[in-house]
Predict the 3D structure of the following.
Amino acid sequence: MTNTKISFPIIGMHCASCARLIEKKLKKTPGVMDAAVNYGSEQATVDFDEKISDLKTIGKAVEDIGYKAIVAPEKKSRGAGSGSAMTPDQMKEEAKKKELADLKIKVVFSSILSVFIVLGSFPEWFSIFMPPYVLLLLAIPVQFWAGWGFYQATWSGLKNRAASMDTLIAIGTSAAFGYSLLNVLTQKPTLYFDTAAVIITLILLGRFLEAKAKAHTSDAIKKLLHLQAKTARVIRDGKEIDVPIEEVKAGDIIRVRPGEKVPVDGKITEGSSSIDESMVTGESMPVDKKVGDPVIGATINKTGTVLFLATKVGSATMLAQIVTMVASAQSSRAPIARLADVISSYFVPIVLMLAAATFIIWYDVETFSAAFTNMIAVLIIACPCALGLATPTAIMVGTGRGAERGILIKDAEALEIAHKTKIAVFDKTGTL
């Protein structure tokens, strides 16, 4: 058995129920030992047997239920350099930008139509009369274009015997739209096009604001990556040439002049200098370095010129490992988050039963219109998004703020139990 553990971004999740559905699907995929999906960081971590499964199979399992898994690099567009490929993180950034732009268009479009629908639905308030069929024509694009994503997610959930927040929205707005359509055809006065349109618009607005907020959660990692040098002066075939940091190989001899950043980890082979290592050790005073001493990538050379042998490059450098640790901590799941996931999985079916009970009780004591309105209210208001979003968001913000201040948090569980700490012991540089 050859076990491999990978983490990759997932595009298209809207709530904790989406994450739970993907997790359930991944665990059923042949060869997968374990899987965890974090809604806050939009990352999946999968432990699988390479002899039974592969990245393509795992990606297809996610796509089969209506989401996109970024499990392998893809070619960049023309102009990006031949043969160059986008990393999964870059692909995720591009996908999020596109999703944000699409959401913005839908929010603006549905907002404008919803305003006209509301104005035309209450002529006694706004003195604007619109025939029912005009309200119907205005409501159709909001319901079936702006709100199409809710139907896709609901259908995907039903195929996999799972319900989500999208199920509640799709059922509630469809009931309002369908009942109104029937009344237009039978020329009855009671219409709920305004209810369906405004609900879809508000939910989309909420998702747009959430997507904008989550776009900043990776800022801590980006700041860490910016500490790295962009180029390195490598000695090859007796000549010194500047190459991008990505092209440095283990075994290269690199020259670092005063004031420059050390590009990668290595060992000094010629010269001596003092190097500022405060970004790693917290030591405020530069450290004297001579031949044979190690140097760390992203630290700053202060005085002399040195030549050093590159020993660790790419993902093996200390800075890359720090970035990986921060990303891993942001994607990890705290014990309290597991409880929230369990609650949210039972929440949607319970809400559907409560909505049905609400309709029956109100219909018994009031009119059909009152019963119908209250049923829709229960379906829409009881969406469990905050339940699944609060904990992972708190973890991402906490680990990110820690990284900005030089505090590396190993995982979410460590962060959760940190409040129990009574005594902390530090050395003179502040290293724990």
